[in-house]
Amino acid sequence: MSIEPVPLFYGDYSGNEEPSTWFTEFQLSLPTTWTDTQRVRRFSMQLVPGQMADQWFQSLNSVQTATFAALTIAFFKRWPLLKPPKLSRAQQRERVAAHALKEGDIGALAPNGNFAHVVWATEISQLALWEI
To answer: How many CA atoms lie within 13 A of 41 on its CB side?
Structure first.
């Protein structure tokens, strides 16, 4: 059974590398029928030799690499999920105000080929989702 390869993992955030995104892509690439041993072995093969992630993996003890669940815990302990900052109400208002729709944008085309006011509405909707 062949699997879709994911890019090798450096673990140093170079080239816009986001560890949690990489790990999710890695997990999705694995066949659901694989054992923990196969998953851990494949994980070790996805690390750039000698780089930060490989050095980290080599330093793990046998308990941390015994199961994929244990490896996952160790991974997110080393590369925790980044959480967006919690903004005050004043900061939230400033962010929304900075995205004010300009009168000239109504009906005008944006560089991506969409109407500028539609692009604005999408951006404001996304911004609002972060504020909830």
So the answer is: 5
User: Is-contact 30 42, C-beta < 8 A?
Assistant: yes
Number of domain units in the chain: 2
What is the number of residues in the chain? 132
SS (H, E, C) 16-64: HCCHHHHHHHHHHHCCCCCCHHHHHHHHHHCECCCCHHHHHHHHCCCCC
* Residue 112, in any domain of the structure: yes
Question: In terms of domains, do 46 and 26 share one?
Answer: yes
pLDDT in tens, 67-119: 999 999 999 999 998 777 777 878 877 877 787 778 888 888 888 888 888 88
Residues 64 and 45 in one domain: yes
Residue 17: both structure tokens together = 């590398």
CA distances (Å), 52 to each of 10, 14, 40, 47, in order? Answer: 6, 11, 17, 9
